[in-house]
């Protein structure tokens, strides 16, 4: 039988995966609705209020990264109202909900997190482009993947560093992680 904490981690991961598909494929109204429901469940079930700082950081990082990707003409996000479409904002919020939960294991070692970012970051953007959410406008998918790998490796390294710093702070101040 699966324990309740493991069930919550599985649910957290599945909600993110479903949310990714909804953000990529569904009309924007459904994206906002799903994200609102997912975040309500997250903070009711497993999230802590202190996570909002992480959410804010990731949304800001995501906004800068995705704006740069579009400005540098690596990808063109379709239906971008301003610098990027609102569904990307929702994706970053959903991703943030996994960092201290279903993906926490990934950030235990910086090298693992960095490699995962360099590989999986570009894969998600290219998969999204194949599903029609964006268009690769560089000369090749390889160039796009390489251009995406570098910032994603840095983001994941940063998140791993922040996780260990956060845990050290909790241990030093409260005696627990």
What secondary-structure arrangement, pairings included, does this model have?
Layout: H1 4-25, H2 28-45, H3 51-71, E1 75-77, H4 86-99, H5 110-130, E2 134-136, H6 141-174
Antiparallel strand pairs: 1-2
Description:
The protein has 177 residues and is mainly alpha-helical. It has one domain. Helices cover 73% and strands 3% of the residues. A two-stranded antiparallel ribbon has the order 1-2. Helix 3 (51-71) crosses helix 4 (86-99). The longest helix is centred in the C-terminal third of the chain and has 34 residues, at 141-174. The protein starts with a helix and ends with a helix. The mean pLDDT is 90.
The tally of strands reads: 2
β content, as a range? under 5%
Biggest beta-sheet profile: 2 strands, antiparallel
Number of domains: 1
Name the structural class.
mainly alpha
Q: How large is the count of helical segments?
A: 6
Give the spatial strand order of the biggest sheet. Answer: 1-2
SSE topology string = HHHEHHEH
Task: Flag low-confidence runs.
Answer: none
Shape category: globular
Helicity level:
over 70%
Radius of gyration: 17 Å
What is the overall pLDDT average?
90
N→C terminal distance? 26 Å
Q: Which structural traits does this protein have?
A:
73% helix, two-stranded antiparallel sheet, 6 helices, mainly alpha
What would a concise description of this structure say?
The protein is mainly alpha-helical. The protein has helices spanning 4-25, 28-45, 51-71, 86-99, 110-130, 141-174; strands at residues 75-77, 134-136. It has one domain (4-174).
